[in-house]
Amino acid sequence: RTPLTKILGLLPIARDPTCDAEQRHEAFDGIDSGAEELRDLVDGILQFVEFRQGERVVQAVDLRALTDEAIRWVRERRRDRAFGVEVECALPSAVVTGSRQMLFTMLGHLIDNAVKFSPSGVTAGVTVTISPELEGKALRVDVVDRGEGIAPELLKSLFQPFSQRDEEFTGQAEGSGLGLVLVRSVVEQHGGRLEAHSTLGVGTTLTVILPTDGT
């Protein structure tokens, strides 16, 4: 069920002159989407390698401002899709100590993942809430999508390499399955905690809790 398998399976239909125009058109659409998935997979692998090998510069990072940058990155990545992201942060300061690039990667993939599984065109299909964590000196970031949710048996493996939401349960199957692995790595390297909660038919919330005093 990899993108390459999808492409190779549809190529014979696209090449077959005995297939009608509609069948060939659907095959080409499938090949096109498979190529995009394959591109994302390769990009994800390269990004993961660079992430592991890169140097970490620790500094004060404003999560509220970084969230806006991450949203712009997602919009550039998904130009063909209309979506809305609502950001809620009532804190006068939402600063943590850590790697700006790593935290940007974390926020970008969290928001991108939520956008993928939220209805297209909804004004506030995704909500990002930044708030203080009740226990200790920490900030909490909740990224909520309003998609079909994740079945409990799939939720356990959500942050495993090459794992992704299954079409059988969500009606969708896209992505490399590496974005949330990067998220998990960033959170762990910053001494934080990552949680996932989901209800089928309602949506999913991914929560990151980061210490404000560094690691």
Describe the structure.
There is one protein chain. With 215 residues, this protein is an alpha+beta fold. The protein has seven helices and seven strands. Strands 2-4-5-7-6 form a five-stranded mixed sheet, with helices on one face. Helix 1 (3-15) runs antiparallel to helix 2, helix 3 crosses helix 4 (100-116) and helix 4 (100-116) packs antiparallel against helix 7. Residues 165-173 have low confidence and may be disordered.
Question: What topology does this entry show?
Answer:
Elements (H helix, E strand, L loop, with lengths): L2 H13 L5 H33 L4 E5 H15 L7 E5 L5 E5 H17 L9 E7 L5 E8 L6 H4 L11 H4 L8 H11 L3 E7 L3 E9 L4
Parallel strand pairs: 2-4
Antiparallel strand pairs: 1-3, 4-5, 5-7, 6-7
Helix pairs in contact: 1-2, 3-4, 4-7
